[in-house]
Amino acid sequence: xxxxxxxxTAVSMITPTVISPASEPAPQLxxxxxxxxxxxxxxxxxxxxxxxxxxxxxxxxxxxLKLKKSMRELPDGYEFEFPASKSAxxxxxxxxxxxxxxxxxxxxxxxxxxxxxxxxxRLTGRAxxxxxxxxxxxxxxx
Length: 142
Hints:
Layout: H1 2-12, H2 27-30, H3 50-67, E1 70-74, E2 77-82, H4 86-102, E3 107-112, E4 119-124, H5 129-136
Antiparallel strand pairs: 1-2, 2-4, 3-4
Helix pairs in contact: 3-4
């Protein structure tokens, strides 16, 4: 998780290029600017306050890794299984709420399977999201 935080911090320090409306951005700059698809495929860890960021990356994330029961690969992302307990749900929802602030391009879904089944956290998105998740959450995808 510390590696992820360093990568996210480094990416968030890059100042976006300002492009005038009259000019067409170069293809390599388009990913850095907000495009018609939405926000860039990059985390902005500075979207979280220092206290929230510290808890998110140093406490909540590692705690979720310990609770994770399994993982499923999806065509456009991943799904992670957690126990269907109140404490796991509270931890997953805290993580998801903060994650959507620093990674707004993610589609985040939570569901409980019927008949007392497990809690699932689904992370998906547009093209490139799955590869981003695989890189950033490598320790969770095992």
